[in-house]
Protein: TRAP transporter small permease protein
Amino acid sequence: MTDEAGIGRAGPSGLARRIVTAWALLGGLLLVAVVLINVITVVGSVFGVGVPGDFEMTEVGVAVAAFMFLPYCQFVDANVTADIFTSRASPRWLALFTGLASLAALVFSALMLWRMYLGMLDQKAYHYTTTILQFPHWVAFIPILMSLALLVLASAVTLKASVSASAGEQS
Structure:
């Protein structure tokens, strides 16, 4: 049995999908926390009370959450597409385009994972921190790297599903 993205629910891809979905939900909870911090800051400003470093926490929280959503977007095929070019394409061509997009996502996410890892090492080596809270920048890289690793996994699973769908279409 497959879902709307053509990805099987059983086996490793089902486990990968559950992990990616849970990761995206954690990203949503992180955004809720960012919103709450901003609400507290705005309401607190009326009473002369603020949250120190709220801007820094917002920057880090939104950046991390955005990366946390990427693997889920890959799994459910929610990335930006130009449907005007594919509206009349056959299922075989759509599977081919989806496979090419998954391959591009796989290559790009692996490249990003490698470069962000090196960036984290630099941030740690030079002891970069935020101005007010003195929060080390490299710590924010950990969930971003986890997100990129999950994006590599999601891209590989969707690529496999696209190849299987394309092969199934030919027989």
